[in-house]
Amino acid sequence: MASPAIDDPFAASPLLRRFAQATRADLEAYQLRKVQVLCERLYANSAYYRARMDAGGLRDGVVDSLDRFSKAFASSAKADFLADQQAAPPFGTRLGVDRADVVHISMTSGTSGQGQEIYGRTQRDVHMLGYLHALPWFMAGLRQGDIAINCVPAGGMTTGGWGPGEAIRILGATGFHVGGNTSTDAKIDLMLKLGGLRFIYASTNYLHTLTEALLARGITPREAFPGMHGLFIAAEGYPLEWAAKIEEHWGCRLQEGYGSTQLNGFGGSTASAGVFRSGSASGGERGLIRLFEWEHLVEIVDPATGLPVKPGEQGEMVVTNLSVEGSPVVRFRTGDAARFVPWQECGGGAWNAIECGTIGRFDDMMKIRGNNVWPTMFDAAVFAHPEVGEYKGRVYTRDGKTEVEVKIAVADHQAGLSSDERKRLLQSVRNAIKERSNMWVDVCEVPRAEFQGFAYKARRWTDERQDGYRL
Questions:
Q1: pTM of the complete model
Q2: What DSSP letter does each residue of 74-132 carry, written as one string?
Q3: In CA terms, which of 6, 11, 49, 260 is 20 to 30 Å from 17?
Q4: What is the pLDDT of residue 451?
C-alpha cells in the first residue's frame, strides 16, 4: 500500500543514519560501553542492583563482555520491584541518582492485577521519554507541521500519557490529543473539521473501533483523509487479514511499535516499512519491529530456562535501559512474548527484530482441554471476518466440564446482513477457531452495544473456571 511521499528518515536523521550504517560488531561494542557505564553508576548508587551484581561476581560493577553481563547479572521481575518498593517506598532502592534529582513519576497501569511499579525520572529521562516516542514516529513519516491525532489518553502517571505529547512537540507537528473523555463520534467530527490530517496514533483495538465507526457513518477513510501517511499502533496483537483491511480502508501503510513503561517509551518500530514484510499486504508475511538497540539491550529468552531462544522461536523479552538515569531497568523480565528475528534475517542492517502483530503476554495463555491457547489465536480467527465488529470470550465450567463461549457482534456498517448470512458467519467463525486452536467452541451473536467499554486496550477474555468449582 503506497503512502504519500515522505523523505527517507535515515537520510534525514544523522543519528538514524549512524546506526543504520553500523556493523553488528560496532553496535555491540557501543552497547557494551553503555552497559559498563550503567553498571558502574548503579553499583555506586543503587543498593538493589549492587546486591545483584555482588551475587553474580560483578564486583564494583565491572563488566567485561555482554555475554558475561547476561549470564552473571540476575534478572528481575515485576514481583521483585514491587517488593523493593514496599520495603523502601516510593521508588525502592533501585534509583540510580540522588532522590532530589527525581522530577517526574511514571507508573505502570496495573492491568496485571499484581500492583503498579513506580519509576522516578530525571529531567534527562523526561527528554528521553519524548525522544523515544518521537523516534518511531519520525521513522513512520511524522514531520514538522503535520496534523497528528493522538487517540491515547493523555496525562496521568503512565508513560503513554506523557510521551505522545512530548514527541509531537519535539517533531514540531500539530497535535490534537483526543483520548480519554472524547467520544468516538466527537473525534470523527473533529477530524473531518480539521482537514489535512496526516498521522494517527492509537492502540490496535481503538484503531479498529475508529475505523468501524467511520464506515458506519458511510465515511471511507481514504477518501475523507487522502493525505494520511501514518497509522501507528501499539499494545496488542492482530491478524494479518485485519491489517490488510485497515490499509485498504485508509489508503496508507499500517505501522507498529513496541513500547512500555520499563522502556521509557518505544523500544522498536516497523519504521516506514509497515507491518507487512514486503511493504504490501499482498505479500502476506508479517513485517518486523526493528529494535532500537543503541538505547535498549533486548534479550529474547526461554521463560523456563532463561537461555536465548533460537531464530524464529517465541520467547520472553528481557530488557535493559542503556540511557535511563532515574529508575533504569536492568535485565527486567517483561512477561511479554515475542518471536525473535536476528539481524542476519532482517534483509539489511545490524538491528535485531521481533515479529509484528504477535506480541502477547505469557500470563494471557490459557490451558483449555489440554491445549495451550493464546487470545491472539481467537483474534486471528474472528477478525479474519470483516463482518465482525468485536468479540469477547469466556472459559467456564459446567457439570465439571470446561466450556468455551465466544460472543461476536456484527459491525455497525454490516448491519444489513440477512438472517442466513449471520448464521453462515457464526459457522465460519467457529470453523476458523477450530482450525487455529484445535477446539470446537460455542459461537453466538450479541448486540454491538455489549462492547461499548472496549476503547483502549481490549481485555476480551475471562476465565471463570475457579468459580465453577465453588460450592
A1: 0.85
A2: --B-HHHHHHHHHHSTTTTT--SS-GGG--EEEE---TTSS---EEEE-HHHHHHHHHH
A3: 260
A4: 78
